[in-house]
Design a protein that fits this description.
The protein has 201 residues and is of the alpha+beta class. It has helices at 2-13, 29-32, 53-63, 68-71, 78-83, 85-96, 101-110, 128-133, 174-180, 185-194, and strands at 39-40, 45-48, 115-117, 136-141, 145-150. It is elongated and about 85 Å long.
C-alpha cells in the first residue's frame, strides 16, 4: 500500500530529483500551494478544478471577470498561472466566499466546469448521484431490524456482484466453518460446550 501511494504521489513531486545530479528540490508547486484545497463558500465547501485556458475563460465570464485573462499576465496561460499559483488560488479562495455552495454549483455547472459539493455525513446520504445509482440500500436484518448498507461500488458486464446476505451474528457460522475445516459433529459440539467456540444463540 505504501509503495502504491508513493508511485501515485511522487509522479507529480519528484520533478528534477529524478536526475543525477538533481535539477531542483522537487515538489509540484500547483499541488503544494496553501489554497489548493476545497473552497470555502458562504455556507460550506465545494471542490472544483479550473485548469486549462478554456475553463479559465468560462470561469472569468461566469463571475464577471471577462478581461482578466487578457489584462493580467499572471492569468494569461497555463504556464503563467503555474508560476503564480499562490496568487491565482488565493484570488479564487476569496471569490468563492461570495456565494453559497448551491449558487456555485449552479454557476459552475452552467459554465461547463467540474464541481462537486463537499458533503457532511448527513448530506452524503441524499447525494443525487448516489440516490440515482441506488448506492445506499435499505434492508431488513433478521435480528437487527431495518438497516442501511452500501452497494458494491463496481459493476461487471459478465459477472454480476449479486445480492449479499446480511452480516451474520457472532458465532452464526461457527459450526459450518468448523465442519468445512474437517471437524466432526461431536468435536464441534465439544468445542462449543467448552466455550472455546462461540455458537449462534
Amino acid at each position: 500500500m505504501f509503495e502504491t501511494m508513493l508511485n501515485f504521489v511522487l509522479g507529480d513531486h519528484l520533478g528534477g530529483k529524478v536526475f543525477d545530479p538533481p535539477l531542483d528540490a522537487g515538489g509540484y508547486g500547483r499541488l503544494l500551494s496553501r489554497d489548493r484545497k476545497p473552497y470555502r463558500t458562504k455556507d460550506g465547501f465545494v471542490c472544483t478544478m479550473i485548469y486549462n485556458d478554456r475553463q479559465w475563460r468560462n470561469f472569468c465570464t461566469a463571475v464577471g471577470w471577462p478581461d482578466l485573462v487578457s489584462t493580467d499576465p499572471r492569468f494569461a496561460s497555463h504556464a503563467t498561472r503555474t508560476i503564480h499559483i499562490d496568487a491565482v488560488l488565493g484570488m479564487l479562495a476569496q471569490e468563492f466566499l461570495t456565494r453559497t455552495s448551491a449558487e456555485w454549483m449552479a454557476l459552475l455547472e452552467a459554465a461547463d466546469l467540474p464541481v462537486t459539493p463537499v458533503h457532511t455525513l448527513e448530506t452524503i446520504l441524499d447525494d443525487p448521484h448516489l440516490v440515482a445509482t441506488g448506492f445506499f440500500e435499505a434492508e431488513e436484518h433478521p435480528t437487527e431490524g431495518r438497516i442501511t448498507r452500501m452497494a458494491v461500488p463496481v459493476k461487471f458486464s459478465a459477472t454480476p456482484t449479486g445480492k449479499r446476505a446480511p452480516s451474520p451474528r457472532l458465532g452464526a457460522d461457527s459450526a459450518a466453518i468448523l465442519a468445512e475445516a474437517g471437524f466432526a459433529e461431536v468435536e464441534i459440539a465439544a468445542l462449543i460446550a467448552s466455550g472455546a467456540v462461540r455458537a449462534a444463540s
